[in-house]
Amino acid sequence: MIAVSLISAIQCVIFLFLTKGITYFGKDTDNSKQVASAAQSPKWRWPSDMHKYSGGKSRMKDIVVILLAFMQRLTFDKKSDYPLVALCAATNSISSVLLFLIACKYFGLPIALVVYLFFIFSAWPWQNALMGFHISTAQMFFLLTVLCIQMPWYLASGAVFGLMQFSSASSRKFNVFVVAAIAYSQVRFFAFPVMNGLSGLASWIFLAAALICLTANAFIKTKGRFFKIMSLLIKSTAYSSLYCAVYILCFGLRALISSHVPFVLGFACAVLLLLLPNVKKNLASFFEYWDLASSLGHFRLYRTYFAKTGKPISDDMRGAGWIWVYRYYGRISLFTFGSSFLGVLAVMFKAFNGGNALYGLGELLLIVLLSASPVIWGEVTRGPQIGRSYYPGFYGQLLVIAYSLAKIGVSFGHPRIVVPLILVLTVHAVWNYSIFFGDLYPSRMAAAWLAKKIKALNVKQIYTYDTPYNDSLLGVVKPEDLKEVKINYIKSIDEVLSGPGEEDSAVVVPGTSSKSLVMESHEEAFTDRDFRSDPALNKLIDSRRIRDAALACFKTFGTSKNWINESEVPSYRYLILKEISDEDRWRGHAWILSVAKLRKVAC
Length: 603
Prior knowledge:
Layout (H helix, E strand, L loop, with lengths): L1 H17 L11 H10 L22 H14 L6 H26 L1 H12 L3 H8 L3 H16 L3 H12 L9 H11 L11 H21 L7 H27 L1 H23 L3 H12 L12 H6 L13 H11 L1 H19 L4 H15 L1 H8 L11 H17 L6 H30 L1 H11 L4 E5 L20 E5 L3 H4 L7 E5 L13 H4 L8 H9 L6 E5 L13 H9 L5 H6 L2 E5 H8 L1
Parallel strand pairs: 1-2, 1-3
Antiparallel strand pairs: 3-5, 4-5
Helix pairs in contact: 1-4, 2-3, 3-4, 4-5, 4-6, 4-7, 5-19, 6-20, 7-8, 7-9, 8-12, 10-11, 11-12, 15-16, 16-17, 16-19, 17-19
């Protein structure tokens, strides 16, 4: 335990050191609004007052903003994205320790160690931290919920579960895991079927309530804020009633009361604290945001583009479905995804060669369905197909790995199993570190590194373009980092070549590809227009002669094969349509160009 905690802490400290000076990833991001709201925390009378300062961008992220306010005090920084990135790094490290403890209790020390190593050697959690994605904090509260259930501290687990719901819009994809943890903690009460006495009566009452609510919801209009909220409330009541009926059927009324009453009480107290003082208004806003993801996808902006290219899309287009999930998991979590698949095959093989194949396969099917529940949830609710939204599925992969190792019978004394595991974990670590340090990290730090390089080169005057392509580069550099540098906006490099060309001047060229994470909502992207308004620059880029004039070159979001999957339409065009090429990624580079070298290249 001490060694695990130490490794996680060291990893966190290294990450915090590497990301010092990180900028926002674009102008007017949700992150910047949440940072501004957290900076006003001394003015809050209630936690819900944060929404007055965030323009609605802290809905379903209340706990993140509260913790962010604390992190701002620790880092003495109330303006930049760094405290949010630091918070995600800290919750990642805490989550890795919690994951180890939970796996130890369920599967034993050897398997817990394997699962822990799969987690800390994965790039995906740290990709989320680099961007300050709120799912990093939600995962910590999810794991705390499960750990409390294991104790079993149902009151505390309910409270933490409530905090999880207010940490990220994607946290609801953890809900089925929590339900499974509660059911597993009550397995001693399993007495199917239980349909007599009070248990039977209660089961029928809940079942009737579920049917009544589902019937009523069928007659509710779906247009308008009021009707949408009412529909969500009625459906929530219906599914909760159906859940209670099934739970009583399996475990009995006593088990339901002993576990769920304190759980619901803790949940209600935590949620009420976050909704006060205007419970009705804040609850309505919560459910409105809950339903927002399925109605505000970016595909609607690209209808004209897809129609022109002969690939028309429907009005409710949101992605490619399960094929996108398969391809994305194969890119971001290749070895955990592959290992979970091999684990399923190994358990199936053992079941067929064992004495009770039907029971073994039935149990395996339940585990596979449980592990896939975040993906199923995402597909059923038609949420956006972006990486962070499907991150809870990573825990499903880890669950299958742990379960399959337990069924195979892993221990430190089985070299036939341990040696291949060490090999897989080694390759897994090398592959993920290459993704992190070769793609995710440098492209996220482009703006920060650009500012440092300009200082190092002693540049006093910059020529650049006034374009949305610059919003995620010079547009997010901290003003104090370039306070002694004069910025001139040009329309063509020819303007620089015909000028005096001082030695302390340079040209900054942002990434010029429209197929990038940060360009998804700009007109240039959904009309498929790269930045080509300067013919002189086009010649330099297309001929690759821009390298001869370069003082520095930077990877950006436009060069990345991984960040692109945080945008639903570019990810669809990349993973499904194969429309994004190496040439697009080449155009995604940012440059600092020497005026003197430009003149030589132009000649």
